[in-house]
Amino acid sequence: MLIVPDVQDVYTPLQTDVIVLLSECRQHLEVLLESIPTMFQSNRTSESAFGAAIKAAFLAMKDTGGKLLVFQSGVVLNYYIS
């Protein structure tokens, strides 16, 4: 997981080793995917960085090519003003 602080100016911090073979890193990827809900359970930000994530993935893959599968989920927050 890489964190890029500015979604307006997306870049890939690492030029190599961003794209890896699934067979070599499957266990690490599964641990990351299982930990994401816990890592962000107290996050109350409802904005999405979907476009920036797609751009960063494109930049990471542009030299090697590949397939990008994207899933997006969001939470609808209701605010009541009394």
Automatic annotation (TrEMBL):
Pfam families (alphabetical): Sec23_trunk
Entry-linked InterPro entries: Sec23/24_trunk_dom, SEC23_SEC24_subfamily, vWFA_dom_sf
MF term (GO), any: SNARE binding
GO cellular component assignments: COPII vesicle coat; endoplasmic reticulum exit site
UniProt-listed GO biological process terms: COPII-coated vesicle cargo loading; intracellular protein transport
Sec23/Sec24 trunk domain location: 1-74
PANTHER family the UniProt entry points to: SEC24-RELATED PROTEIN (PTHR13803), SECRETORY 24CD, ISOFORM C (PTHR13803:SF4)
Protein name (Swiss-Prot/TrEMBL): Protein transport protein SEC24-like
Origin species: Trifolium medium
